[in-house]
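Example for tutorial group B:
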């Protein structure tokens, strides 16, 4: 929870300051985080009682909460039904035959044999940027992109990128790690061994600036049993 100073002091909960210090024109905020599965959250414990008191006496206005059912079975009776929940099901968005200029997605064997970490990081950065532009639907990766170089100096990496077509499947919603792992297993089974694929997952943003954590996995086309993984962490 992100609360202002007055609410934070009235609630009596344990938190920490949030945001840049000394920012002009911005009111200080505090961030309060609770793990409801922690032993201190059992009924009768001080942490639990303090949170219940704050909810009854300070946080009195109705709020909308987002819950994720990480299992395939719904308990009976469903404890959420008495709150009249709105069920939301995430459906896939499919974009087929996207024309792109594709760089080489295979790591140069010489880089691996010589353990050249600097070259590997350079290759990985360029490929990750290319994937990010595809996810954004950017025109910079299109074969006949004619952007003014004054506006963008990006070019697809590599000496001889090839024209190719890719398919993009996207889901947006509250997914569990178990669901994502199952999706990865399905892709591994469905795609032939010499076919490359990339899987990315991005967390909800926790800040006004929109920064979020991201995990991307690539199986190169000519590297059986080898994968590249990028993990980016928000600075917030």
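The residue assignment follows.
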């Amino acid at each position: 929870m992100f609360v202002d100073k007055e609410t934070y002091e009235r609630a009596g909960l344990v938190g920490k300051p949030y945001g840049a210090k000394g920012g002009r024109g911005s009111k200080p905020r505090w961030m309060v985080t609770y793990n409801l599965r922690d032993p201190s959250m059992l009924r009768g414990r001080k942490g639990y009682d303090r949170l219940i008191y704050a909810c009854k006496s300070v946080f009195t206005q109705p709020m909308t909460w987002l819950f994720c059912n990480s299992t395939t079975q719904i308990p009976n009776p469903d404890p959420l039904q008495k709150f009249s929940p709105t069920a939301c099901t995430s459906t896939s968005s499919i974009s087929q035959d996207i024309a792109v200029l594709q760089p080489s997605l295979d790591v140069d064997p010489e880089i691996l044999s010589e353990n050249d970490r600097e070259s590997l990081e350079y290759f990985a950065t360029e490929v990750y940027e290319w994937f990010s532009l595809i996810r954004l639907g950017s025109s910079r990766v299109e074969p006949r992109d004619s952007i003014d170089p004054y506006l963008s100096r990006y070019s697809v990496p590599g000496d001889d990128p090839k024209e190719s077509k890719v398919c993009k499947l996207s889901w947006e919603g509250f997914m569990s790690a178990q669901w994502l792992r199952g999706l990865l297993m399905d892709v591994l089974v469905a795609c032939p061994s010499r076919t490359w694929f990339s899987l990315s997952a991005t967390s909800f943003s926790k800040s006004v600036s929109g920064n979020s954590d991201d995990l991307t996995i690539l199986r190169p086309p000519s590297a059986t049993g080898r994968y590249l993984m990028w993990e980016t962490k928000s600075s917030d």
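Helices lie at 5-11, 46-57, 109-113, 117-136, 177-190. Compare this with the pattern of hydrophobic and polar residues in the output above.
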